[in-house]
Every structure is written in structure tokens, then in C-alpha cells.
Amino acid sequence: MSRTDLAPRPETVERASEGKAAISGVGQSDVGRRMYRSGYELTVDACLAAIADAGLRPEDIDGMATYPGALGNPPGFSPTGIPDVQEALRLNLNWYNGAMENPGQLGSVITACAAVNAGYARHVLCFRTVTEGSAQGEKGRSSVTMGGGGGSGYRADGFASWLLPYGAASAVNWIAQFAQRHFHQFGTTREQLAQIALTCRANAGRNPKAIYRDPLTVSDYFAARMISTPLCLYDCDVPCDGGTAVVVSAADTAPDLRKPPVRVLAVGSALHGRNSWDQFDDLTTMACRDAGAMLWDRTDLSPRDVDAAEMYDGFSFITMAWMEALHFCGKGEAGPFVEGGHRIALDGELPINTNGGQLSAGRLHGYGFLHEACTQLWGEGGDRQIGVAPAAGDKRPEVAVAAAGGGNLAGCLLLGRS
Amino acid sequence: MTDVSKPRPFRILPRLTQENRFFWTSGADGRLRFLRCQTCRDYVHPPTPICPHCLTKTLAPEPVSGRATVASYTINVQPWIPGFDPPYVIAIVEMEEEPAVRLTTNIVGCAPDDVHIGMPVQVMFEQYDDVWLPLFQPVTAPAGSAAKAGSGVTS
Questions:
Q1: Is A373 domain-assigned?
Q2: How many domains does chain A have?
Q3: Residues of chain B with C-beta less than 8 angstroms from the C-beta of A165
């Protein structure tokens, strides 16, 4: 099983506009399982860290983007919105956008790139904050699922109205069925799926900010309680508290920046299939199929050029789906591709989720992958930095992928070292 | 098999709208219905105000056989909703008349471990207030067993 080459195909969309947009800084607040701190404060901490990382000051920020914007429910899912940050930092914005009907969590960053390319803004501050760990408290995961555990008189609207009546209350139930279909159609096994969780945990052991850092074994994995077959506890990400921010800047501002910005080489935001969790045409993949295909349509690079792949793992199977969607392996081949875990390890041919992913570093909801991809490209990964083993010489990553979203949500960016 | 002593689960119900009311009340006469285009004859689900295929406004609810195939499923083990006790089987079923029309549902009337992809199933309904929830049971189940039990929960 090897990473497949892509046959040349006609460009479906005008490419290369991404070249004008770059990531100039990243930042993150404290991250913890349950910190019981203000999500507003965590957001501001992350934003100021990203602005400082870029070598900028708040008065340089003239645009903002976020996913999904402040929401009262589900609890802790998105405690803070753009107006909060604009108020706290008194930003003068020429452009801003916070929305959840877009290509996943990183759709907000893709939108920021578009704003920079259009000239609406020069430095766009993007953020995502969660306080799901604290919101859940000691009451358990069910207290933060859709519908808040029900209650008399509550009725489900929109897409949830087709799922909640059947007790399909958590995304784990929806993703489990994609995994089950993949198992059925391609012979994928739980032993193979376990490698995603084990790899993330091994990487988390090298990340001081990760939530769970103790080694995880195959025996631990199989001893864990089942949540929704075939997904067990270790296939599910860890609700946590934390804010993550990035600054998207116009590439020609590089002289004003603290360090060479990370170039945005291509983006994937497509959704050609049904915009639905259960009506998508192929139940062995998801919206990531279309976003991944678009990304490769917009660059001359190929999957074999990627040195680090930070791919969403809200549930372990989603990472497998992204692997196939981004053509790191053939359709249906993610199971054999990850078997044994060597290929996807920190020193493997395709290191994945190098900060521990959401499975072990915490559910920072998409933005953690972008933060980590940039961290690796800047060579700032510390104990988890790719390519700095004594024997390796300087093989720090030159190209990385950040991909986020499961189900009908999917957005991805191909990033390159300046 | 279905446990007759088990109470019906607490279910979060869908809010009925102008678009979906026909679907959720269809089971009142024991028939499952989907919107069908009277021009190009395609089935459409979830409901839209216009046929996505031929763009005519000639959609109307039509009864279907209620026979379907399990396209995928999961045995949910984690408690999420107070009063809806696991384990229970959540499945995506494809309708016999048009496999592209799918429903997320529960498979009832058999042990969770007996459910498999490709399993032929048949609709049955559970009424809650003004909603008739379509559930599915194996076509091999003894006729009416789950309906008699009055419970969609498998045990």
C-alpha cells in the first residue's frame, strides 16, 4: 500500500489566489480538561498570543473570522464571538465574518484567506474557543449533546429533527455508521483503527500541553468501554477548555512580521455531495472527499510532497476518511495504510496529528490542527518536532496539511514553509 | 427479542413544519410516505419545496412499501438522553423504491447483535403525541411482535 499519485485532471476552479495569503502567527491559551475559566478570557489570551507571534499589535488587525460565532447551546461549544474580541481589544475592523454554515471549522480561515486576497483586510485574526470540558462538568457527556439531554416540550429542528428522535444524539452515532460501512465494504478492522488513537497518544506524550500523555497500548484500547459500535472510548476526542487563534496576513506584509509567514498553497472547501449527515452518496467517506479533491486541483504539489498531516480526529475514523480524501492512500486503503502504526508515527513517512490530535491533546475543534501544522513548519515543535532527530539532519517539514471537519463539514489547507 | 415489560423510551420529537408534517404523521394509517415528483417521478427526502432533479413544483406525498435495507448501523451503548436507555440500534436504511432515499431510524424487534448491513427490514410505527415515528424491524420477525410490545427498544 503506498501513497497514490494523482492523475492529472482539469482544473475545476481558478487556482493560485491563495498565494497572496499567509499565516503570520499562531497562539493558544492554557488548555485543560476542566479549568472552569472564562471562555472570553481564553479567547483573548489566544488572540493576543497569535498577534504577538506574528510580531503585530492589536491595532494592526483589520479583519476577523471565526467558526461558528458565539452560541448559547450546546453548552461550552462556542462561548465567544467576534463582537466580544472586538470589544476587548477595541479593534478597528474593515471586514469580519463568523458563521457555522461553511466548510467546517477551518472554513473560517479559508474565508479569511479570501478576504485578504480580495483586499478587504491585511491582517485577519481568526479564532476558535471551546469550554466543553467545564460545561460538561461532572454530569457527563450527555449534558452537552444536542437537545441538552431532552426535557419536556423540547422539539428538534433542522437536521437534528431527523436524528434525535432515534436517540442518535451524539456525533459519535453518526460517525460510527460511516466507520461500520467502511469496515463492511473494505474489511477495515478495530485493530487498524486503534492505530489512530495509539499514534495520537504517543505524540501527546511529547506535547506538554496535551490532556492525556500516558502511553496507550492496544490492550488498553480493547479494554475500553464501547460507546457506539465500532467506536470505543479511545476513538472519541476529549472535551476540553481552550482557545486557539491564527493571524492570516497578506504575503506582502512579510517585512513587517516577526518571522517568515507560512504560505497558504491551496485550500479545499468543496462539497459536491448532499449537505447531510445521512444522505451523503457514499457512506464510506464524507464531505472531506470533495474538499480533498479540490485542494489537489489547486496545486502542482502532490500527496507525496506532504511532510506532516494534521487531520481531524473528533473520532478516529474521521482521520482515516481524511487520509483517503487527501489521497495519502487509495480509496478504502486507510486500514492497511495505518496498520502497525509505523507509517504514521512521528518518524514515519507521513507523521499525523503530531501534537496528539483531539483524541489526546483535547478537542480544540479543528483549529488545533492548523496551529500544529504551522508550529511544525516553523520548527517550533519542541520534543515532538518532525525531522530533528540527531541522525536526520535538518528535515523539518516543508509542506503540511491541516484538515478539519467530519460528516458534512470539511475544510483543508495545504501549507508551505517560506 | 423485544422485551414487552420494557417501557417505551423517552423520545425527543421533531418539530412539525409545513414541509415535514406529512412525513411524521404519515404512520397514522400505517403507511410510510415520501415526497415524489409528479413530473419526473423521483423521490425526494428530506422534503424540499421543489424537485431538485427537474425543478418543477409538483411534489406530492406518495405511499411506499415500507421495505428497506440496512445500509449501516451502530449499537449505541452510551446513555445520552434520560429515559432512552441503551443499548439500542441506530441505523441508516435505504428504501426499496429508491435506495438514494435514506432514513436514520432504530432497528427493533431483534437483538442488537443480529443487525447487519444488507439486512432486509420493514417499517412499523410508534406514536408519540402528534408524531408517528417510523421504526424498522427485520422482515423475518413474527408479524406484529414489536407492534404488540408497543416498544421500539430492543433488549
A1: no
A2: 1
A3: 11-14, 131, 133
| A352, A378, B25, B66, B146 from B30: Cα distances, Å | 51, 63, 10, 10, 14
Count Cβ–Cβ pairs < 8 Å, chain A vs chain B: 123
Cβ pair A142:B81 closer than 8 A: yes
3-state secondary structure of B144: coil
pLDDT digits (tens, 9 = 90+) for A230-289: 999 999 999 999 999 999 999 999 999 999 999 999 999 999 999 999 999 999 999 999
In a domain, A371, yes or no: no
Spatial CB neighbours of B19, under 8 Å, sequence gap ≥ 6: B46, B47, B48, B49
Domain boundaries along the sequence of chain B: 21-141
Q: Is the pLDDT of residue B4 over 70?
A: no
CATH code where residue A112 lies = 3.40.47.10
Q: Which helix (H) or strand (E) holds B125?
A: strand B120-128
Cβ within 8 Å, pair A167-B82: no
Beta pairing, strands A95-98 & B32-37: unpaired
- Summarize pLDDT for B38-50 with one digit per residue, the tens: 999 999 999 999 9
Residue A339 within any structural domain of the chain: no
Chain A residues with beta carbon closer than 8 angstroms to that of B106 = 166-167
CB contact (8 A) between residue B14 and residue A172 = no
User: Best interface-test mutation with A: which of B35, B77, B90 has the largest number of A CBs within 10 A?
Assistant: B90
Looking at residue A137, its amino acid is G
